[in-house]
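Hi L.,

As promised, Beta-fructofuranosidase:
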Amino acid sequence: MALPNFLSVLALFALLSVLINNGVEASHKIYHRYQSLSVDMVKQTHRTGYHFQPPKNWINDPNGPLYYKGLYHLFYQYNPEGAVWGNIVWAHSVSKDLINWESLEHAIYPSKWFDNYGCWSGSATILPNGEPVIFYTGIVDEKNTQVQNYAVPANSSDPYLREWVKPDDNPIVYPDRSVNATAFRDPTTAWLVDGYWRILIGSRRRHRGVAYLYRSWDFKKWVKAKHPLHSVQGTGMWECPDFFPVSMSKEDGLDTSVWGPNVRHVLKVSLDLTRYEYYTIGTYDKKKDRYYPDKTLVDGWAGLRYDYGNFYASKTFFDPSTNRRILWGWANESDAVQHDKNKGWAGIQLIPRRVWLDPSGKQLLQWPIAELEKLRSHNVQLSSQKLYQGYHVEVKGITAAQVDVDVTFSFPSLDKAEPFDPKWAKLDALDVCAQKGSKAQGGLGPFGLLTLASEKLEEFTPVFFRVFKASDKHKVLLCSDARSSSLGIGLYKPPFAGFVDVDLTDKKLTLRSLIDHSVVESFGAGGRTVITSRVYPTIAVFDKAHLFVFNNGSETVTVENLNAWSMKMPVMNVPMKS
Ligand code: DQQ
């Protein structure tokens, strides 16, 4: 996609806001009356079975994920008063396996002059003595002025880290006069290089997205560096920056402070204007404290994305117990605000993903954490199933509304791939998917899964590949198309899509989808391209939901192997007994 005209991006954003009317508001609202139904009235139809959700109310960004004394901790932005954004606190849950969660008291909530109007996103750092520290953004007034604060455990021998203290020397960082004080938030995990700690704070200078860098030698006094770590003209406010090292030779994750010859760095930013994220891989010059994205990568709107669908405000952390870097991301609702109020809840956290550098060095790979497989129960398989043009074959015998499905497709040749229209080179993958959906007959593809489908296909969310032949190589499109997902009204139903940079020499493509009532998370080609859709079927719910494999291309495609597992419900945010 060419750099979009700034006004058209704004117009698109305004349109989406009207359609969804569900973005995070620019100011912190305090509601005096409860805005949702009581929990026993919560309507469960579209609640997820194995995704992270509290029993009720609004959630957004994952905050400060960490591993401590045998437990994983997840904090997240939460409205204790209702199913819309507002009154934001850090809710807190703990888990032994990142799948079963117990909830604790809120960890951080407005209580001091430096956070009285909201406790916004931030990160955790594990100090060399093993103790955690949280950095978060405090809102200090009605004008939405933002400062950065820290909090420490009241009792660090408590593995549950139940109580957090905000020392009186807060805030640790004020916006100076050169900084936009209402666009200055979301501190990162700190990293230590050559005796100095560093953190980033997301911001903007006019239309330029900025990651300000602050340094400290004692972790208390933080001084702004002369230059930001990085900034990009025209990208608008950078929320929730994330900066971390990745190994060039191993899939293992690295602690955030690792720097060395075999290490690249990743900078991810969340673009407030469009509410999607992009990342680059590059070089961190620790002397200059500058980050240089690889020249071959797009550093802007059309950059690489963890997820080409509904995925925002993500954050990674290093898990020292398994040497993984794990990614958390939030998926907002795509229904109307009034629906959320009726449901009594809004927002989920997606299944945590392991992330590592592809051996090519050109992109990251992602895969759902292995612990998810503990929830797999009844399994059905298909193998050597030929899908001729127009075929759809049901995968029977599983709970299709709550399933993990992993499939390998093969095809005899690439000859029937449709030509890739050179005009599409300027388009976003989503626009190509909008033109070439699952129903339009193709050559090699569309083939894939029809998820959350009603028996007679009045509703379905197809997740599929289409292979095109461009002048120099084949282009593989992965779509997760919500346009037919529901007969309901007032829904945002985009044809999300991304291209997949994959070698087709073996004439195979793999797809794994995590389907869970109102979410479909799909990992194409082993996690090279990932897309999440939020959908709200009206017929295809509970045992009326079906799963099919399909092919609408003239080339016959074979399901080499398909495994689908009904998924059990984990313990999900049951309050921990004191
Ligand atoms: N959500 C938080 C902010 C952050 C935004 C407020 C991103 O700190 O910038 O709830 O979704």
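The radius of gyration is 23 Å.

Thanks again for sending the construct details.

K.
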